[in-house]
């Protein structure tokens, strides 16, 4: 069974924690205000990195997407949209998925 959640947040210019109740295997964040940027992250990538697509594909080396530990340090509960993606006042649409064995 797979867990899939979607949502929207408004960028603040700072990192945004998104609580899911699980750590995703895949996250995609799209700037739907401008439609000019998409970031993707897969389990196994370094925290804070993502694959960024705008007019060209590039690897983001920091301030991308990370696992989010939630309120209990020993329980991963979501992901963080880094400040490099969280453009102030822009609406960001996200999808997060996890394969549950």
Task: Please give a structural write-up.
- With about 100 residues, the protein is mostly beta strands.
- The protein has no helices and eight strands.
- It has strands at about 1-10, 15-20, 25-30, 40, 50-55, 55-70, 80, 90-100.
- The chain starts with a strand and ends with a strand.
Q: Can I get a quick summary?
A:
With 101 residues, the chain is mostly beta strands.
Radius of gyration: 13 Å
Q: Please summarize the sheet with the most strands.
A: 8 strands, antiparallel
Mean pLDDT: 89
Helix percentage range: under 10%
Total number of strands: 8
The low-confidence runs, each spanning 5 or more residues with pLDDT under 50, are none
Give the DSSP E fraction (strand runs of 2 or more residues): over 45%
Instruction: Give the H and E element order.
Output: EEEEEEEE
Structural class: mainly beta
Q: What's the helix count?
A: 0
Our measurement of the CA-to-CA distance between the termini, rounded to an integer number of angstroms, reads 7 Å
Strand order of the largest sheet: 1-8-3-4-5-6-7-2
What's the overall geometry?
Answer: globular
């Amino acid at each position: 069974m797979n867990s899939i959640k979607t949502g929207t947040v408004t960028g603040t210019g700072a990192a945004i924690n998104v609580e899911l109740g699980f750590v995703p295997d895949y996250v995609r964040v799209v700037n739907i205000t401008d439609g000019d940027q998409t970031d993707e992250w897969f389990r196994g990538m370094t925290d804070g990195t993502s694959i960024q697509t705008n007019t060209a594909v590039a690897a983001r080396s920091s301030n991308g997407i990370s696992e989010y530990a939630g309120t209990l340090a020993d329980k991963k509960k979501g992901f963080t949209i880094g400040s490099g993606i969280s453009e102030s006042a822009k609406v960001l649409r996200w999808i997060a998925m996890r394969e549950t064995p």
